């Protein structure tokens, strides 16, 4: 079904329409300096398409919350834990409710973490709920920056990964990304490059004009026109809009943002006693005397500095004995291992992101009052990979298992658990895990991704995969001198079944 969204007027007073079905397959990038009309354009798009498709708006300033009054969007306040936002996002996809993720009031790093958790929950939804969703991200340069800023590397990587999944891999999951940015130079290139439709507004910097002209297939001399665009005017290009650059004037909207551009208002009439109002202290100021800071001490003279350097150093004082009992490392490690086992006892744990699991882990450590500092995120990722295997005592103490642990340290965090599970099966002679088991350990529902991961291991010489005459899979580890028993690759997730039987 073809749905034409009226965006305004094109050249020659011809209506400029946007093919909604084509947009869902090809994504959209909107660029323009502050005041160029980006938010107005997004509001027009959302209002016109609201009756036809589910919508999700990532709103850093809370401007789009007014859509709830007329179009029924549910406003999700982002002042929640990351695990809560992930679960809410999954239910949003399940029940097909249009939402506005309101990030107002959070600092930049908290906004990045909240947006990453919410987008991750929508991306990881079950295949049965992969309905079309228009995902609009305003101020996308905040969530997919081209370079690191004042936020932590962890928050930047989480947010950038979520935005990359949205724009690069979201189409097959029904997620159509619409991102808006003030400056193309500040937006990560791998995120911007995935859009096939463009609406370029007013911009002044040469680097942004050059990138805009390059995306639209225009010559550099034509880039000067972006300086002359009025507010609400854009140059459009893409399979959902026009095959050639098309000037578009965005039409009117039905709702208004909570924050508007400042308008000139006449100054109040100057009172006759303005000097007395400014230079005379009020009664409240007299009752609250101003506190003056004492002047800083004068800098020491050169002789005083030389005398200080020539003084002998005082002997280091012995540290007083701590009034608190020393931390029993063995008991602390056992508590952490118990929390890891409890954390992985949840059947959905394999499909939750590492960031969400780590936040849950920290909360459980505080509840259990585990002494000392909790493990940092890199150490937690390593513990998570080992805890998902949980070999028996005989296997854990063997030289082969220690060698397998050393080999796994050369791999990335997301595949260590899969490698260790197969290595444990080889050392114990157990059947090769099925594709369903490997996919769950890899954090996906796709069996084909699990098979590609085995091919990736094999290309690096870590293992050898072969099939017997019954098409059962056997995985051999040359460095460990061990191999698994034959296992059905199409079988069920036996690790889940065994865990349920044990419980």
Automatic annotation (TrEMBL):
Residues 292-301 have a biased composition (Pro residues). It comes from the Bacteria. The keyword Glycoprotein does not apply. Residues 24-311 form the AAA+ ATPase domain. Residues 289-329, 482-503 are annotated as: Disordered. This is ATP-binding protein. Keywords: ATP-binding, Nucleotide-binding. One of its GO terms (molecular function) is ATP binding. The keyword DNA-binding does not apply. Pfam families: DUF87 (PF01935).
């Amino acid at each position: 079904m073809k749905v034409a969204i009226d965006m305004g007027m094109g050249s020659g007073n011809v209506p400029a329409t946007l093919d909604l079905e084509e947009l869902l397959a090809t994504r959209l990038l909107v660029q323009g300096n502050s005041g160029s009309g980006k938010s107005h354009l997004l509001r027009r798009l959302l209002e016109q398409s609201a009756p036809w498709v589910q919508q999700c708006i990532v709103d850093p300033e809370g401007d789009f919350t007014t859509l709830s009054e007329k179009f029924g969007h549910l406003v999700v306040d982002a002042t929640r834990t990351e695990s809560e936002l992930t679960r809410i996002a999954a239910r949003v996809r399940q029940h097909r409710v249009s939402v506005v993720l309101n990030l107002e009031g959070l600092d930049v790093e908290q906004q990045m973490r909240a947006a990453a958790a919410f987008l991750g929950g929508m991306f990881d939804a079950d295949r049965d709920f992969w309905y079309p969703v228009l995902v609009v991200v305003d101020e996308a340069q905040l969530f997919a920056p081209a370079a690191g800023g004042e936020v932590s590397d962890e928050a930047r990587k989480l947010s950038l990964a979520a935005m990359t999944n949205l724009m690069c891999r979201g189409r097959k999951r029904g997620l159509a990304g619409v991102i808006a940015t003030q400056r193309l130079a500040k937006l990560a290139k791998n995120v911007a490059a995935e859009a096939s439709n463009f609406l370029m507004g007013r911009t002044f910097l040469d680097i942004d004009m050059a990138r805009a002209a390059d995306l639209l297939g225009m010559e550099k001399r034509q880039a000067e026109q972006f300086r002359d665009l009025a507010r609400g005017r854009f140059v459009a290009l893409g399979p959902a809009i026009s095959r050639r650059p098309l000037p578009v004037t965005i039409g009117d909207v039905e709702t208004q943002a909570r924050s508007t551009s400042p308008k000139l208002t006449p100054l109040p009439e100057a009172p006759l006693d303005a000097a007395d109002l400014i230079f005379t202290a009020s009664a409240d100021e007299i009752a609250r005397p101003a506190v003056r800071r004492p002047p800083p001490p004068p800098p020491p003279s050169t002789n005083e500095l030389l005398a200080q350097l020539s003084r002998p150093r005082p002997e280091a004082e012995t540290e007083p004995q701590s009034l608190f009992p020393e931390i029993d490392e063995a008991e602390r490690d056992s508590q952490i291992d118990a929390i890891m086992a409890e954390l992985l006892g949840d059947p959905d744990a394999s499909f939750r992101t590492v960031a969400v699991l780590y936040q849950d882990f920290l909360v459980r450590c505080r509840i259990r009052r585990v002494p000392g500092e909790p493990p940092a995120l890199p150490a937690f990722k390593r513990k998570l990979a080992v805890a998902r295997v949980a070999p028996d005592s005989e296997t854990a103490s063997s030289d082969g298992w220690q060698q397998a642990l050393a080999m796994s340290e050369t791999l990335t965090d997301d595949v260590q658990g899969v490698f260790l599970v197969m290595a444990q099966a080889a050392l114990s002679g157990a059947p090769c895990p099925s594709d369903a088991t490997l996919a769950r350990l890899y954090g996906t529902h796709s069996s084909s991704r699990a098979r590609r991961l085995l091919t990736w291991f094999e290309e690096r010489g870590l293992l050898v995969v072969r099939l017997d005459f019954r098409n059962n899979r056997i995985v051999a580890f040359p460095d460990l001198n061990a191999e698994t028993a034959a296992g059905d690759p199409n079988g069920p997730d036996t690790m889940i079944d065994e865990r349920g039987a044990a419980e």
